[in-house]
Structure formats: structure tokens, C-alpha cells
Task: inverse folding
DNA sequence: ATAGGGTTAG
């Protein structure tokens, strides 16, 4: 080592201040720096405090010298002066993102009996501000007062900033008021504090009383107006600014963007370029974000091109925004190209790419990338879990959540929401309850989204009591919360309570939306409240100015149809501004059958089968109409057509009893004993039905099932029907598979309707899409939202 | 030396 040093110093035997300055100016590599350092140690020049401070200053400000070098030099100094201490502390704060270390160095500094100067405290106060740590800041404030630097205007301004950043405007204002000297920075800092806490009144008060209003102050006000949704005020202020700078434009553009006025944001961005104002990566990120919201990939490409032209395309934030843009617009290859070619990628880039893949449905690619990550954060896990949940991979979502638990990573709200929604879809009540307990145990804040998701889960799993508990415990409730409550109660048959809750909602400031009215109209339908249904329907359009959607119409058509108002129902269908969906027509056809209006039923049924021959529902509805009149030859004709069109489906669903017990019915991982109960039930029904003299139309149906389908599910719907009519015996239990995208078919409906009639028992069946509520041999459905 | 603008998971 010593030999090495000697060899190096032999090249430049002497050193003094001017040689040091020259050498440092030329220094571009770590080895050159090492050479200078060795020389200084060997000549003893390092003990010259000023020379040492030049060396430290250089090393902390260069980007090629590792920070531990600076610290090593620092440790070798015998008597570092205040300047050197300040340099090291500032370096921790500014270049190494460790304000905590800056404060630790201050503690060492105090032990040295070296007096701090007026540069020392601003550095420390900024460190506290960076950590948003008011108690630490308060301590430094005490030191400031003791050391007498509290009259320094720089120190006072950084104190105002500290309290402002921590949101303590009382203290910020106190420091401001007690200042003998106030400059523009003091005013702007106080103003920025009120902007930070979102206090428009106080901010305007300060802004109006400023002796001089410069561009920085006006820009702050634009930001505030933008955050508060006062777009017009922001624009007016922008137009009044004499010397608009890049930040003024940037602030207004992001004001538009944040308030959903993305076209205006882009127009302003183009204008900014036309006016020859310089653009940087910050304003470009905002512009790209606006392009993403509007899905205008071409505009995004031109911003990308501009960034390349200006030479700032390598900024990580810009690349991340572009990855997000391209994957949102389905241009996943462009996103991938950016990601693979990115030089300076960060965690956000990886997370954006993962969510980009997920957005495009490339689940495997997302998982591969996720697995290859060396360092994952909560966002990575949440993105992956919620991606799984959104694509119906509920088992995978839950498995990944459990993996995350095993690694001891605390999930965030997104992960919890996603996994609860997976539980909702799978009717995995036990796991859902476990997660609820986990949330309570770990003191997670149950906010609107999380609370609503839990409430929704309990409602959709039939646990009304638990759902209500969650509802009442929630401090803040959003429209989605009320919707989950109102719809959930209606779904579970508590219709009166559902309507009561809607009346309660009217007393709050939360306005109902189209989903709320789905619940309300659905409740009226369950109860057969024709007048109320009509009234709510008109209040939705008249008072609340909500355009009814297909489902709203369908609901009212069903309500009218059930009440026997077939003509009115048909007229409503004809008045619809959009094409009626299958359920709407189904409601009217079902009503025709119930009210024995064969003329209308046959007319509509024949028309619909012609329009949509591949839909099993219409065939069944028409055959039911014939069956109710005993026209068996017509029934067989329609059933034959069904087989011809290949529309016989395999069903699957879960049955939820009023007490919340969930039975997997026809599919799902359940024990044989539960199936046996159902078998037993069906056989009893079969016996009853036979006595009542139903015709065995199921002969035909069971023949329609092909061998392949038989292997897929243990209970095909035709077998069930056959069982119900006592025509065949149940085959020995085979392993039951979970069938995805379960859908209750019409024959399954028929069976359960019969059960509900025979046992005079209400049954609620839930599949992936809706609740089926069976009562007295008829069924009404409420769709999920 | 202290004051103003942006992005990612749902």
C-alpha cells in the first residue's frame, strides 16, 4: 500500500492550494481522486483545514466518487471545521437521500465543541422537513433559539417551511409573525404551507396581503385551485400572471388533468410549445398522463418524440408514464420495448410493466416478470394480486396473498380489497372472515373502499348481520357503500329494510346513482310494489336526471309483468331507447306464461327465437309457455330445436340458506354428504311432483346431453331434472370439479322453483353474476354490479 | 442556502 502511494506521489512531488484546485478541476475518475488523496496524506497537506474542506466539498459533489470515500476522508481529519461538517451533513441530505444521517452527524458535531454557523441550521431543518418529523424539528428549533441564530432570515424561513411541511400551520404562522425581517421567501413559504394543507381561505388571505406577488406565489395558488377543483379560478389567475414561466404552464396543465379536463390539458400543452416556452420532464409526464386518460396514443407518441428531441427521454418518470400509456392503449409491445431498453429503471417501472401486462390480459408474462424481480414492494404484490382477481383467477389471487403473508409483508389496502373480492366471487366465506379478523387485529384503517368491499362480501355470501355490523362501524360512507347495503339487503330478501335504507340515504349528502336505483327497483320488484316502482323510476329520471339503462328497464318490465300488466310492460319495452336485453324479454315472456297470455307469449317467443336461435333462455321460456297449456308436441319441438342449436349448458352454483350457510350446488369442492341431502330433497320433490301429474318432458332433455359433457360435471342439469322426476337413479359420485364462469341454466331454475314450491321454502342461489331468489315456485334475480 | 409543477398498483 505504502509502496503504491509512494509510486503515485513520485509523479507530483509537491502540492499546494493552487495545484490542488487545478488537479480537482481535471479530476474525472476515481483513480485520479485516489491519487490526489494519497498525495495529500503523504505530504501532510490533509491537515490543512481549508485544503481538506476543498477535498470533501469536491468528493461529495461529484457523482463518480462513492460516498464512503468522503466519509473515510472525513474520519481522518483531526479538526474538521464547521464548513466541513456542514458539507457532510448537506451531502447526506441532498445527494444521498438520508436526512436521518445528517441529523446523526449533527449529534456528533455537538460533541466536538465546534460552534455551528448560520448555514448549519437550515440544513438540519430541511432534514427534519424531509423526514416530515415535527418533534425532531422542534428540538432543532430549540437549539436555534439557544444558539441565537433565530434572527437569521434564512433560518426563520426554513423554520416556517419545516412547520408548513409538517402541516402545523399554527407554528408556521407563529414563526412568521414573530419575524422581524420578512422577505418574499417568507411570504411564499407561508403561502405554500396553506396550499399544502389545502386551506383556500387562509391561502387567499395571505396571497392578497403579500407586499409583492411574484410568479412563484401565483403558481402556488394555481396548484391550490387545481387541487380544489376550481379550474376557472386557476385559469383566470394564470391569464393575469405577467411573467408566466414553465411552472405556471405546468401547474395549469396538471390542474386540467387532475380535474378530468384532459383535452384542455393537451391543448394548453400544445399552446405552450407554440409559445416557445421550454418544456421539461415534469410537464411532459402530465401531458402523457392526459394522453393515457384519453387513450390518444398518437398524441402520446408525439410527446415521446418531443422528449427524445429535447434529449430528456431517459428520465425514469417519463419512461414510466410512457410504459403506462402504451400498455393502457393496448400497445404492449411498445411498452415492452421501452422497458427492455430502459437504462435507469426503478421499482415503479417494473410495477408499471407488470400492471401493463395484466391490463392486456397477459397474466403469464406478468407473473414471469413478477417472479424475476429481485426486490418487490407492496405495490408489486398488490398489482399481481389485483390483476389475478380482475381476470377471474381467484384461487391464484388468494394463493399469492398467502405467500405474501408467509414472507411477512404487510399487505396494503389494494391487496386486501382484491383478496376480499376474490373471496366474494368464490363464496369463500371462511377465508373472508379470516381476513376481516386480520384487518381488525392489525389495526388497518377501514376506509370507504375497504369497508364497502367487506360489506359487499358479507351481503353476497348471505351474511346480512355481519354486513350490517361493518356498515354501522364505518365512519365515512360513500355512494358505493349505500349501494352495497341497499342491493345486498334486497338480494337477501330483506326488501322492506332495503327501501328503508334508501330513505335514510336521502337524508345524507350522498346522492344516489344508477346502481342505487338498481337496488331500489329490484326491491320493489321482489315485493311486487307496482306503484312505488313506477314512482322511483320516474324520480330517477326526473329528479336525479339519471338515464335509465337496460337493467332498469328490465326490472320495471318484470315488475309490471308479474303484476299482470302485460300491455304496459310491452309498451315500456317498445319505448326503450336501446335494444332490450335477453333478461328484459325473458321477464315479459315469463309474465305471459304466468298470466296465461298465450297469444302474446307465443308471438314474442317465436320472434325472439328467430332473432337469437343460439340462446337457450328463449327456447325454454317458449317451451314453458306451451307446457303450461299442455301443448306437449310444441314443447318437444322447441326442446328438439335446442339440441339442434347446441345450447344445452352445464350449470353450477352455490346455494345460500337464509342463515348464511353456503352449499356448493352442482359444482364446487364440497363433500358427498351435502350432495346426498340435495339428492334426497330432489327425490322427495320428484315423488310429490309425480303425484301432481307433471308430464315427464325430461326424457328428451336427458337424451340431449352428449358424453363429453357428462364427464365434465357430476350433475348435469338434465340428470338433475331426471332425478327430480324419478326417472333415473343418481350415478355414483365422481370427483367434482370447479367450473369457472358458472351460470345457472334455466332447467336448474325449473328444479329449484319446484323445490321452493314443494317445500314452501325460500331459497337464494348465487352464481357468478347474480342472486336468484326463489319463492312460491317463482324466481326473481338481482344482478351483481 | 430558504419558496412553486408530475408519474405507478385499485
Result:
Amino acid at each position: 500500500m505504502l509502496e503504491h502511494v509512494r509510486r503515485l506521489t513520485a509523479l507530483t512531488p509537491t502540492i499546494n492550494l493552487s495545484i490542488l484546485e487545478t488537479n480537482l478541476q481535471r479530476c474525472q475518475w476515481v483513480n485520479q481522486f485516489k491519487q490526489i488523496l494519497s498525495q495529500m496524506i503523504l505530504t501532510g497537506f490533509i491537515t490543512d483545514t481549508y485544503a481538506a474542506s476543498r477535498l470533501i466539498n469536491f468528493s461529495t459533489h461529484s457523482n463518480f466518487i462513492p460516498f464512503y470515500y468522503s466519509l473515510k476522508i472525513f474520519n481522518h481529519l483531526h479538526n474538521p471545521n464547521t464548513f466541513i461538517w456542514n458539507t457532510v451533513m448537506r451531502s447526506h441530505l441532498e445527494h444521498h437521500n438520508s436526512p436521518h444521517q445528517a441529523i446523526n452527524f449533527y449529534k456528533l458535531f455537538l460533541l466536538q465543541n465546534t460552534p455551528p454557523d448560520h448555514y448549519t441550521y437550515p440544513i438540519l431543518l430541511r432534514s427534519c422537513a424531509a423526514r416530515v418529523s415535527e418533534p425532531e424539528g422542534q428540538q432543532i428549533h430549540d437549539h436555534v433559539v439557544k444558539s441565537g441564530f433565530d434572527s437569521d432570515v434564512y433560518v426563520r424561513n426554513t423554520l416556517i417551511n419545516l412547520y408548513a411541511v409538517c402541516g402545523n400551520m399554527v407554528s408556521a404562522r407563529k414563526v412568521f409573525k414573530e419575524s422581524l425581517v420578512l422577505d418574499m421567501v417568507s411570504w411564499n413559504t407561508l403561502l405554500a404551507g396553506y396550499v399544502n394543507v389545502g386551506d383556500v381561505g387562509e391561502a387567499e388571505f395571505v396571497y392578497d396581503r403579500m407586499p409583492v406577488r411574484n410568479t412563484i406565489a401565483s403558481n402556488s395558488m394555481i396548484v391550490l385551485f387545481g387541487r380544489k377543483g376550481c379550474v376557472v379560478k386557476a385559469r383566470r389567475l394564470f391569464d393575469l400572471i405577467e411573467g408566466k414561466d414553465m411552472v405556471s404552464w405546468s401547474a395549469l396543465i396538471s390542474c386540467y388533468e387532475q380535474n378530468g379536463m384532459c383535452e384542455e390539458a393537451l391543448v394548453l400543452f400544445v399552446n405552450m410549445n407554440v409559445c416557445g416556452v421550454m418544456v421539461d420532464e415534469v410537464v411532459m409526464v402530465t401531458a402523457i398522463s392526459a394522453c393515457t386518460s384519453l387513450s390518444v396514443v398518437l398524441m402520446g407518441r408525439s410527446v415521446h418524440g418531443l422528449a427524445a428531441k429535447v434529449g430528456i427521454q431517459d428520465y425514469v418518470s417519463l419512461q414510466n408514464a410512457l410504459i403506462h400509456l402504451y400498455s393502457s392503449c393496448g400497445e404492449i409491445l411498445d411498452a415492452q420495448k421501452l422497458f427492455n431498453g430502459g437504462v435507469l429503471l426503478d421499482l415503479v417501472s417494473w410495477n408499471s410493466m407488470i400492471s401493463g401486462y395484466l391490463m392486456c390480459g397477459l397474466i403469464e408474462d406478468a407473473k414471469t416478470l413478477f417472479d424475476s424481480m429481485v426486490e418487490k414492494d407492496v405495490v408489486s404484490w398488490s398489482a399481481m394480486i389485483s390483476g389475478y382477481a380482475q381476470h377471474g383467477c381467484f384461487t391464484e389471487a388468494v394463493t399469492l396473498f398467502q405467500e405474501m403473508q408467509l414472507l411477512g409483508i404487510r399487505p396494503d389496502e389494494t391487496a386486501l380489497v382484491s383478496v376480499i373480492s376474490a373471496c366474494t366471487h368464490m363464496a369463500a366465506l371462511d377465508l373472508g372472515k379470516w381476513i376481516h379478523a386480520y384487518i381488525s387485529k392489525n389495526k388497518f384503517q377501514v376506509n370507504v373502499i375497504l369497508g364497502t368491499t367487506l360489506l359487499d362480501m358479507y351481503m353476497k355470501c348471505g351474511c346480512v348481520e355481519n354486513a350490517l355490523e361493518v356498515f354501522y362501524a364505518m365512519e365515512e360512507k360513500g355512494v358505493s357503500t349505500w349501494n352495497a347495503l341497499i342491493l345486498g339487503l334486497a338480494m337477501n330478501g330483506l326488501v322492506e329494510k332495503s327501501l328503508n335504507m334508501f330513505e335514510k340515504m336521502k337524508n345524507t349528502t350522498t346522492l344516489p346513482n344508477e346502481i342505487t336505483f338498481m337496488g331500489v327497483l329490484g326491491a320493489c320488484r321482489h315485493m311486487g310494489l307496482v306503484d312505488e316502482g313506477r314512482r322511483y323510476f320516474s324520480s330517477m329520471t326526473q329528479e336525479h336526471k339519471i338515464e335509465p339503462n337496460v337493467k332498469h328497464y328490465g326490472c320495471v318490465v318484470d315488475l309490471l309483468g308479474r303484476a299482470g300488466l302485460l300491455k304496459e310492460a310491452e309498451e315500456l319495452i317498445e319505448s326503450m331507447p336501446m335494444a332490450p336485453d335477453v333478461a328484459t324479454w325473458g321477464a315479459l315472456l315469463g309474465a305471459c306464461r304466468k298470466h296465461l297470455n298465450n297469444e302474446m307469449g307465443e308471438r314474442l317467443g317465436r320472434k325472439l327465437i328467430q332473432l337469437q336461435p343460439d340462446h337457450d333462455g328463449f327456447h325454454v321460456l317458449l317451451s314453458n309457455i306451451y307446457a303450461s297449456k299442455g301443448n306437449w308436441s310444441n314443447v318437444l319441438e322447441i326442446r328438439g330445436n335446442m339440441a339442434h342449436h347446441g345450447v344445452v349448458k352445464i350449470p353450477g352454483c352455490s346455494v345460500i340458506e337464509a342463515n348464511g350457510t353456503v352449499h356448493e350446488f352442482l359444482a364446487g369442492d364440497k363433500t358427498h354428504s351435502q350432495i346426498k341431502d340435495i339428492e334426497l330433497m330432489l327425490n322427495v320433490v320428484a315423488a310429490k311432483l309425480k303425484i301432481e301429474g307433471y308430464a315427464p318432458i325430461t326424457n328428451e332433455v336427458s337424451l340431449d346431453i352428449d358424453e363429453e359433457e357428462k364427464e365434465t360435471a357430476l350433475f348435469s342439469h338434465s340428470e338433475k331434472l331426471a332425478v327430480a322426476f324419478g326417472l333415473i337413479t343418481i350415478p355414483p359420485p365422481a370427483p367434482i370439479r370447479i367450473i369457472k364462469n358458472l351460470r345457472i341454466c334455466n332447467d336448474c331454475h325449473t328444479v329449484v322453483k319446484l323445490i321452493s314450491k314443494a317445500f314452501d321454502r325460500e331459497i337464494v342461489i348465487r352464481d357468478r353474476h347474480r342472486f336468484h331468489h326463489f319463492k312460491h315456485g317463482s324466481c326473481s334475480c338481482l344482478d351483481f354490479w
